[in-house]
Design a protein that fits this description.
Layout lengths: L3 E5 L3 E2 L4 E2 L11 E2 L1 H4 L6 E5 H12 L8 E6 L3 E7 L2 E2 L31 H4 L1 H13 L4 H9 L6 H9 L3 H25 L3 E5 L6 H15 L9 E4 L6 H15 L7
Parallel strand pairs: 1-5, 6-9, 9-10
Antiparallel strand pairs: 2-3, 3-4, 6-7, 7-8
Helix pairs in contact: 2-9, 4-5, 4-7, 6-7, 7-8
Length: about 260
């Protein structure tokens, strides 16, 4: 066993093995993992989930051996793992990649981070599910209405995909709009970082058949260098397994770099 890899949502201090308190984690305090993991006497490496997923995609995914890429994660949260010259880019304070907290509407709803109209307010799965529940209660989607009121099912993101596959127009519309918002985030990434590849991951990637077209169209219409560059956008194929695979890749990345620090 080379070590223990930890992949967590939100910001981390890898050097001190701490998951940092963050406005998006309600009632959450900084958590020092040493007290939980020191008994194993193994090297411990940690990263936020977008960075960890980014590493796995470059080790053994759709961006294998590509040195300049961005992993765009849209699920419970929205964030990005950024790889430049084969190395994760964290910025001066190791907090880069918070694409979900860039504003796409300065007059939009207030995010818990304090900003207004954050991208995450429009394309994290909980916000998507809020739209789905509303559509179900008001009968705008017969498929979702049946699940919620007759089968008493707690709606999940995969139910929206299932409804869209069964030609429920409302479910298709919800996912189309999701794709449109994701395209805004990807265009920002393309304009700022100019990566060779962008990989879309998280639960959103499961809806590829419905979000791919609005994302492609958005890029074709609004990407600054659309007349000269055709961006490469791929979709992660790992589903929920990316969390564990990403954690393992964090260990592998440090191992290959010869970094095996202990407590």
């Amino acid at each position: 066993i080379l070590g223990i890899g930890v992949s967590v949502p939100g910001p981390v201090e890898a050097e001190t093995y701490t998951i940092l308190a963050h406005p998006t984690f309600l009632n959450h305090k900084s958590l020092d993992l040493r007290s939980y993991l020191k008994e194993y006497d193994l090297p411990i490496f940690m990263a936020n989930n977008a960075d960890a997923a980014c590493l796995h995609e470059t080790w053994n995914g759709v961006a294998k051996e590509i040195p300049d890429m961005v992993y765009f994660m849209a699920g419970e949260g929205v964030g990005a793992g950024i790889l430049i010259d084969g190395k994760l880019y964290g910025g001066k304070n190791k907090k880069a990649g918070e694409i979900g907290h860039t504003s796409v509407n300065i007059f939009g709803p207030r995010c818990v981070c304090g900003n207004q109209g954050c991208l995450e307010m429009y394309c994290n799965t909980e916000k998507i599910l809020e739209k789905a529940r509303e559509a179900a209660w008001f009968g705008e989607s017969q498929f979702l209405h049946h699940l919620l009121t007759e089968k008493r099912v707690e709606l999940k993101f995969h139910h929206i995909i299932e409804g869209a596959q069964k030609n429920d127009i409302t479910c298709q519309s919800i996912l189309k709009q999701l794709g449109q918002y994701i395209s805004v985030g990807i265009i920002n990434i393309l304009n700022i970082f100019d990566p060779e590849v962008v990989v879309i991951g998280g639960e959103a990637a499961l809806a590829k058949e419905f979000i791919e077209e609005p994302i492609r169209r958005g890029i074709e219409e609004r990407f600054l260098y659309r007349d000269y560059i055709t961006p490469h956008v791929h979709y992660s194929q790992w589903g929920d397994d990316i969390r564990l695979l990403g954690a393992a890749s964090v260990v592998l990345d440090h191992f290959m770099a010869g970094e095996l620090g202990r407590f």
